[in-house]
Amino acid sequence: MANKSKKWSNIYLIFVFILMYAPIFYLIFYSFNKGDFMADFSGFSWRHYIDMFADTRLMQILVNTFIVALLSALIATLIGLFGALGIYNTKQNNTKNILLSLNNILMVSPDVIIGASFLIFFTMVGLKLGFGSVVLAHIAFSIPIVVLMVLPKLNEMNPALVDAARDLGANNYQVLSRVILPYAWPGILSGFFMAITYSLDDFAVTFFVTGNGFSTLSVEIYSRARQGIDLSINALSALMFLLSLILVIIYYFISNYSSKGSKKKRGARMVVHQ
Amino acid sequence: MNRNRTFSYTIPYYLWLGLFVIAPVILLVIQSFGNLSGHFTLNNYATYFSSGTYLRMTFNSVFFAFIVTGITLLISYPMAYIMSRLKHAQFWLLLVILPTWVNLLLKAYAFIGLFSKTGTVNNFLTLIGVGPHQLMFTNLSFLIVAAYIEIPFMIMPIFNSLIELDKSYINAARDLGATSWQTLTKVIFPMSMGGVKAGIQAVFIPTLSLFMITRLIGGNRVITLGTAIEEHFLVTQNWGMGSTIGVILIVAMGLTMFLTRDRKKKGARHGK
Amino acid sequence: MAQPIIEFKNVAKQYDDNIVLKSVDLEIEAGKFYTLLGPSGSGKTTILRLIAGFLEATSGDILFEGQRINDLPPEKRRVNTVFQNYALFPNMNVFDNVAFGMSIKGKKKSDIKAKVAEMLTLVKLKGYEDREISELSGGQQQRVAIARALANDPEVLLLDEPLSALDYKLRKDMQYELREIQKRLGITFIFVTHDQEEALAMSDWIFVTNEGEIVQNGTPVDIYDAPINHFVADFIGESNILSGVMRQDYLVSFAGKEFENVDGGMRPNEPVEVVLRPEDLDLVSVDDGKLVVTIDYQSFRGDYYEITAHDDDQNYWKIQATNPAVTGERRGLFFDPEDIHIMRLDESEEDFDARMEEYEDSEEDVQHES
């Protein structure tokens, strides 16, 4: 009886995983197609990869996308870290809760709302749409995730550690650099990686605030996909999948490292949102 | 400890809160009361509530979001439950998270290939003698793709609530004579309600606002609130009306959060 | 008398309306082992944190060698703390933890190394420099925490219930070792605990705290033998507390009878409380007893039997005896006049001390006479 239900549950597990991965591998598979469509595999070829790398516009956009991702993640991590420290140091519970709720507004807001309201905001202050507005927008929507990654680390830290450091003669800066930051480091790294992912993944917000001259990968894929199948996009997706895989592996090691002491909440820290 | 220092290093964060969280929302609300030339008016709301098109669109959007949420919940709960009882649960969770790191557009794009007239699914349908069918630009294709994209976001919170559930509750239930089915329905499911609610929030609200999928897969047949906002902002340039629908979407979001809020924990268990 | 190293003058601490410390005065002399003893929430940890500088006093003066240090931040005080859960930095190994204070001060590498080795030897963890904190047992972490605090050469070491997380046997060993370390280094230790046994075993001087006040201070023997009030008598050691009436000096009445005792200085017929320690009571034959009791219950405690009995006035008695008794049997209860300790209701510590001084002398006279 137990064995039978175990068998069924394994079948179900495998079935759902196949559903989840089939479209991705389907994309990757056809990137090696000699033909021009995502059907009728007519033979193996690197042709679409060559096309992709020869496509200077696509390559430029790829570079743009990564610059935006790294830059915005870096700045968002810094601001978010200081924000988390600020919230952590807030003594009054009411103020703390208000800050946390405000922090989470962008986490729960639909992308279109963020995109539309940022568009209004940028237009009102007279910011030219393009690289700057995209980076600002990406920083803005990445900050809350950094806070949410760093804050639990700070909260789980024994407050006596700060007392102990001061007791042993450390000043404010030394307490921060020698005790708090090393302790929160895994959370900071997770926040940074999540911010990169958010940035790479974003389509809707960028689509609203990007204007005409500047494009990121998501926006480019969208406009190409509306025109039909283009197998260099498949090649690109294979590349992106590989990259995601590497990021996940890095992330896995970070979170493993961070939970060496407290094994419990590893998964819980991967905050769920699009 | 040192008030001035605390203040200075948090300035960027508070600036962000003011400029990118509070200001944009206020601007959106203000904009919703403006007409094309920027004067105050209630016309946008009047138009919205008197127009059959807008109301039908809103109803459709909510209806489809409901169905998508239902489908993902049905698939995800057993999945999360099975995963939570496996040995390397965290590894399986990573496998669930991995697809979310693949660009949304790429996933939607995959379905264009799968569902197109000469695509793989139609080839298969022809092979077993029931096809080909028009798959692209149908309600069904929208539902499938939306559900596909949202499934990981439903699995994750449910999984987390199940993995945090103390195993001794299950042992206690079994010890007191509950069958495994009774344990599931009377102990495990109620105790994982928090995760289910979080999952519903994480799926329902984004589905209301998905617009790229309706554009790419739904072929404008299913207009969601998100699509309407995009259309008004970027195509017809009627920001006032777009903002009005945005406000409606925010209200819908608030309502969803309110309905799925956690009634039990009044800050007690919420260590965050 | 030498100048006290730490002095509290009318120190109070309150959060909003919540008073955690009411006007406390205390004096700590250099080189002794002090204990702040009290139940949780009695203010003992607050006193410790005020000395360390983690809390600011609402009012009053805290003096260190005669200098007011109320506004001195913790890093500038020549005081170090061993924290309740050790608060060892998890991202550093044993060496880096012990070296933390010195590296903050920018000491020379070679000096740091020598000092760390010295400190680890002191706490019997020689050779543990490269261990990670997570690899250590609770007892070892405790030792590292002590070494880390001592490596800073504090004048005063504060210990915040450092032994509470250890098991019984390890706790006993650590009590002995802490006392040894204190004696060897000759610095002042201020130890916080709620465990009266620990306090009695280790201290030169005990401050008993309750509800934000120091209710009594003295040597362990003083406090055990002459508790000032019901709370102290009950909190420290086992006791039988009965209400009685002081007929005149050296004559007290309780349990329906009058007894000769060694206390005095009260009004005639003043209502008092009478304390008798269970180990001072002996079970004898009914004829030899000062009171007659009926044995209710007994339990074996290893080195003695704890016996519960009641007298004819329905007072319950706890008795510690080396020999077992028989449940339901009627036995005599015997105690000496000096085993009876009298507590006046609501007596201040000053009055109590003055009265004790006066009657302790005459107590000796009484004994000489008899």
Summarize the structure.
Chain A is mostly helical. Chain A has helices at residues 2-30, 47-54, 56-89, 93-108, 111-125, 131-156, 160-167, 172-201, 204-209, 217-226, 231-258. Chain A is built from eleven helices and no strands.
List the helices and strands and how they pair.
The complex is a heterotrimer of chains A (274), B (272) and C (370).
Chain A: H1 2-30, H2 47-54, H3 56-89, H4 93-108, H5 111-125, H6 131-156, H7 160-167, H8 172-201, H9 204-209, H10 217-226, H11 231-258
Chain B: H1 3-9, H2 11-32, H3 43-50, H4 52-84, H5 89-97, H6 104-115, H7 120-127, H8 139-163, H9 167-175, H10 180-191, H11 193-209, H12 212-218, H13 225-235, H14 239-259
Helix pairs in contact in B: 2-14, 4-8, 4-11, 5-8, 6-12, 8-11, 8-12, 9-10, 11-14, 13-14
Chain C: E1 6-15, E2 18-28, E3 33-37, H1 44-52, E4 59-64, E5 67-68, E6 79-82, H2 94-104, H3 109-122, H4 138-150, E7 156-160, H5 168-185, E8 188-193, H6 196-202, E9 205-210, E10 213-218, H7 220-225, H8 230-235, E11 240-248, E12 251-254, E13 257-260, E14 270-276, E15 282-284, E16 291-300, E17 305-311, E18 316-321, E19 330-334, E20 341-344, H9 349-369
Parallel strand pairs in C: 3-8, 3-9, 6-7, 7-8
Antiparallel strand pairs in C: 1-2, 1-4, 4-5, 9-10, 11-12, 11-14, 12-13, 14-20, 15-19, 16-17, 16-19, 17-18
Helix pairs in contact in C: 2-3, 2-4, 3-4
